[in-house]
Amino acid sequence: MTKIVNLLSVAPLLRALMFRALTLAALMLSSALTIGAEVTDLYKASVAVPDRSVAARDSAVAEGLSRVLVRVSGNSSIVLQDSVKSALTDAGRYVVQFGYHSKETLSPEDGAMIKTVFLNVSFDDVAVNQFLRREGFPIWATSRPNILFWGAVSGVGGRQLVGGQQQIALQQALEQQAKRRGLPLVLPKYDDQDLAQVRAGDIWGMFVDPIVSASARYDANVVVIAKVLETPDSVRVSAALSIQEQQQWWEVAAETLDQAVVMLIDQLGDRVGERFAVQASLAVGEQVILDVSGVEELKDYARLGEYLDGLLAIRGWYLSQAQGSHHQYTIILESDLDALEQGLRLDRKLVPQPVKLVVPLGEGSTDAAESTSTSTIPVTEGPAEASTNGPQVPARPVLYYRWNG
Predict the structure, then answer these.
(1) Structural domains of the chain, count
(2) Co-location of 289 and 271 in the same domain
(3) 109/166 same-domain check
(4) Do residues 148 and 271 both lie within one domain?
(5) Model confidence at 5, in pLDDT bands (50, 70, 90)?
(6) Nearest-CA neighbor of 144 among 273, 47, 254?
(7) Does 271 lie in the same domain as 337?
(8) In this structure, are 226 and 172 located in the same domain?
(9) Is residue 190 classed as helix, strand or coil in its secondary structure?
């Protein structure tokens, strides 16, 4: 005999599903535009050394580890912490490989070409991450948001855009500092399409909304606008950041343009890192169910497992159910659900899926109430127990995705 479901008890769940259904189209659209970049060499550093002595090497290794910790944590102030200062005194324990190389560089004093020796050092990513997690620092994964940089400079030659064929030296300085922080920085082309929408005056006026609209063609997750005012005695930079529909503003001032660029990129890296780096938790992680369709072949299963292993938002996982191309995984979170979903949106290897919930309206009825959701809707794990009091109280949230790896 078909059991009649208590619709009053189902109503709250249906209302939640219907609310989430309204955001489905927007979420799918925003996901398509939030494709991150895979940043390599996060755990490597190249540091200039005066010679190849042991003392110079030890000093360079400590400096290299300092850069790596900042880059991986997304926080430049981490080097001020006592635990980090202590780790830097024994930086060699984190080294897996090092070597030297030489190249010609410009002397900052007279512009002459000089030969500079660099120590190239690679650090153990597992050991570095374990240190950050143990000390309660955030960890920023290799999948990072694209950052589109709109800049303008005002000096003795008037105002110039930063991009295209203008301000080449400044472009190189920005890219070098962005690489130091592990930031995927993108500069506008300033072709006819860009110039039809954005002028130097727009950047100088810090007109954020129209510039963000003009940024859509670049698939950027983050948009930053900066105006640089150069005087004979100082450089002042005013910056605006648009990230996940929120805006931030700040200023930096320095004696030279190079110093101002370092300060600007450090502020940018800290602000973006604060949003995307995963804050580890020492407590027992929350558990969620990851429901994945599209796992068609054995290689899909293997690649999906490798992908889950690499997500810093996940502390552990196991396959709890499999039926054909449809798999369910129990996920133990490192931080929280928002951090996991944010990471999934960046690389798009798992695509959020709508879910249908069918609720019988009465005994013998063939009608059904239908709703859609893209993300976390609670369901009951395991076989349902017959009850006259409606559906069971959900135990864990469920994420519905399709494998796209």
Answers:
(1) 3
(2) no
(3) no
(4) yes
(5) very low
(6) 273
(7) no
(8) yes
(9) coil
What pLDDT score does 326 carry?
A: 87
Q: For residues 184-216, b (16+ Cβ closer than 10 Å) or e, as one string?
A: bbbbbebeeebeeebbbebbbebebeebbebbe
Taking all residues of the chain, what is their mean pLDDT, rounded to a whole number? 80
Q: Under a CB-based contact definition with an 8 Å cutoff, are residues 329 and 289 in contact?
A: yes
Residue among 133, 141, 149 at smallest CA distance from 194: 149
Instruction: Name the nearest CA neighbour of 317 among 353, 345, 350, 346.
Output: 350
The pTM for the full model equals 0.67
Point out the domain boundary residue: 91, 123, 139: 139
Counts for the chain of helices (H) and strands (E), in that order: 12, 21
Considering the domain architecture, whether residues 107 and 187 belong to the same structural domain is answered as no
Length, in residues, of the chain: 405
Whether 191 is in a domain gets the answer yes
Full residue range of the structural domain in which residue 312 is found: 7-34+281-403
Q: How many CB atoms lie within 10 A of CB 34?
A: 20
Largest Cα–Cα separation, the chain: 92
Judged on CB neighbours under 10 Å (0-12, 13-18, 19+), 3 is exposed
Q: Last residue of some domain: 83, 114, 139?
A: 139
Which residues 6+ apart lie within 8 Å of 149 measured at CB? 162, 163, 174, 185, 186, 187, 188, 224, 226
Closest by Cα among 172, 63, 53 to 117? 53
**SS3 (DSSP) at 290:** strand
Gyration radius from the chain CA atoms: 26
